[in-house]
Amino acid sequence: MIAGRWARGCLMLALMSGAACAAPAPSAVSNANEPPVIDPSAEGRALRLPFDAYKRTEADIELAERAVDVLAGQCLRQKGYSQPALPAVTVVEAPNRRRYGVIEPLVAEQAGYHAPLTSAEKERERADRARGGPRDAAERSAAHDCLQGSTGRVYVDAADSPLLARLEREIFEETRTKDVHVRSAFDAWRSCMRVRGQEEYADPLAAAADDRWQDLKSAQAETAAAVADVACKKETDLVEVWRRAEEELQAAAVKRHPAEFGEVRQALEKERAEAARIVQSTR
Amino acid sequence: MKKLAVAGIALVASFSVLTVSPAEARLADRNLITFWEHDDYQGTRKDFTCVSQQREDLGALENKASSMANASYSGVDLYSGDNLTGVRYYAAPRSNDSDFTNNGFDNTVESLRFRTVPCD
Q1: What is the complex's ipTM, to 2 decimals?
Q2: Cα separation of A121 and B92, whole Å?
Q3: DSSP assignment letter at B5
Q4: Mutate which of A141, A160, A222, A268 to test chain B, going by most B C-beta atoms within 10 A?
Q5: Kind of pairing between the strands at B42-49 and B76-81
Q6: Which of A9, A278, B12, B62 is most buried, by the most CB atoms less than 10 A from its CB?
Q7: B92 in contact with A at a CB cutoff of 8 Å?
Q8: Phi/psi at B6 (nearest 5 deg)?
């Protein structure tokens, strides 16, 4: 993490992209060996549930990561190393984008059932790779010591609630397997898939889990299935039916456990405030 | 989920408690997340390194993992469905979970994504 090492990577990046040392602007065109870059659509961004307010957002995680990076950088400087700070990345909130499988036509067309990268993820990856890693064992050891201490100062344990996670899983499975409206929507979706020449999977998650999609030879079939899947979800209103069923049960769960959910929110606010303070202290 | 209170030699001590040999503990320091078949870090284990962001299936431990240790400095998103679908569970950097039952993820994780690549 010596500055010179990063500067070489940065120079190479700048020569290749024609950009300055900040990560280059993400492109919609991707290499064949990596997922395409597709930001969440309006539909993906709009998919919200009550529990979202009690979980780290993308912005929270990005802020916490930068706060750890700031503290680790300060720690490394005290040990005689230097490390440029990670750039801020503009994230898009879409916490449930892939919750019900593929729901966006562009993703289905370009990635099939596989997940695309977002611009923010791509930008962050480029920045991380451009910065490079430790040069030797001593630097690696120093970096790990600094990261260990910094991570412990930023992340708040109580922000990860086992109760919330368990309820979320239970509600998801309950609606998936027992809710009559969701089951009815699955039936309609299966019929639609059949009409479009696709297999009758149990539900959209089973379609996403077809082992055939691990084989590149099935890429065309995967794209066709994913495109049909998205169209059938839209035709049957499956996503909104499922989301409403979950929304009702999640809202009721929040009311049943006010103290526990309140503690989670407080922990998140504490973590968020401390991370923001650390990041702002460098400005 | 608990933080891994480990650094340097303490890592070896901590992972010894988790019935992981010193050699494996050194491996665990290299930015990976490890899943175990049973609670308390027992049974078959499978390591995933943060060389690339997405691991879209857990192989032999798909739907069979009962505990995990994220020894990396990257947050890791765990998903209940293949190809990063279903419910997401965020494993914070340097965190572990000895029993997925408490959070409803026992025998559930099917795919994962490292948030920082490379992560060391």
Answers
A1: 0.86
A2: 17
A3: -
A4: A160
A5: unpaired
A6: A278
A7: yes
A8: -135, 145
